[in-house]
């Protein structure tokens, strides 16, 4: 069963996406709730699978990542076993930042981070083109990666309320 989120739940989610380090007291103040009520709502959001974790954003260069790239992968056959095998392999790679199973001319999009161009070349040859599931890859360098802090709110409960204007009386 899907959780129905109200405006306070959405405000909690927005605040935590902007700063997951907020104390419960700070979070409660931002969403205008008592701390005990806020703590209960956050617990409910976690138990309901809405809040799935808290992450730190890290500067890639601090980890030795000088180049990021998107590797578009087309599988030789798009059957369940090949998809499962490639997915597990891509997620096991130390350089993988993100993985997308997509529709269209490619089957996967793998976001990778590497030290330099030689590292990227070796990764492409050793980790992708050598795989029996892989028919073809295309590599695109990323010049800039700007992650957004918030997911868009597309639920009916997240729509902004609109108030009807009354027509002036004649």
Summary tags:
Alpha-Beta Plaits; Arc Repressor Mutant, subunit A; single chain; alpha+beta; disordered C terminus; four-stranded antiparallel sheet; 170 residues; elongated
Description:
By secondary structure, the chain is α+β, with helices and mostly antiparallel strands. The chain folds into two domains: 7-56, Orthogonal Bundle (Arc Repressor Mutant, subunit A), CATH 1.10.10; 60-142, 2-Layer Sandwich (Alpha-Beta Plaits), CATH 3.30.70.920. It contains five helices and four strands, in the order αααβαββαβ. It has helices at residues 7-18, 24-30, 35-47, 80-92, 117-129, and strands at 67-75, 96-101, 108-114, 134-142. Strands 2-3-1-4 form a four-stranded antiparallel sheet, with helices on one face. Helix 2 (24-30) packs across helix 3.
Short description:
With 170 residues, the protein is of the alpha+beta class. The protein contains five helices and four strands; from the N terminus they run αααβαββαβ. It has two domains: 7-56, Arc Repressor Mutant, subunit A; 60-142, Lrp/AsnC effector binding domain/regulation of amino acid metabolism (RAM) domain (Alpha-Beta Plaits), CATH 3.30.70.
The proportion of residues in beta strands is 15-25%
* Count of DSSP strands: 4
Assigned CATH class of the largest domain: Alpha Beta
- Mean pLDDT, rounded to whole units? 90
Low-confidence stretches: 161-168
Helix coverage percent of residues? 25-40%
Structural class: alpha+beta
Gross morphology is elongated
CATH fold field value of the largest domain: Alpha-Beta Plaits
The CATH homologous superfamily of the largest domain is named: Lrp/AsnC effector binding domain/regulation of amino acid metabolism (RAM) domain
Query: How far apart lie the N and C ends?
Result: 50 Å
The run of helices and strands is HHHEHEEHE
Q: What oligomeric state best describes the polypeptide chains here? A: single chain
């Amino acid at each position: 069963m899907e959780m129905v989120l109200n405006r306070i739940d959405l405000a909690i989610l927005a605040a935590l996406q902007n700063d997951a380090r907020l104390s419960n007291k700070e979070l409660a103040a931002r969403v205008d709730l008592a701390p005990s009520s806020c703590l209960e709502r956050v617990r409910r959001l976690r138990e309901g699978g809405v809040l799935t974790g808290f992450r730190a954003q890290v500067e890639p260069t601090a980890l030795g990542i000088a180049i990021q790239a998107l590797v578009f992968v087309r599988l030789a056959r798009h059957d369940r076993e090949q998809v499962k095998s490639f997915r597990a392999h891509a997620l096991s790679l130390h350089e993988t930042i993100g993985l997308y199973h997509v529709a269209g001319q490619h089957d996967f999009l793998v976001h990778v981070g590497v030290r330099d161009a030689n590292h990227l070349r070796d990764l492409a040859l050793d980790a992708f083109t050598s795989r029996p599931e892989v028919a073809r890859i295309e590599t695109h360098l990323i010049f800039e990666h700007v992650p957004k802090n918030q997911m868009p709110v597309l639920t009916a409960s997240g729509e902004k309320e609109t108030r009807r204007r009354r027509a002036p009386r004649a």
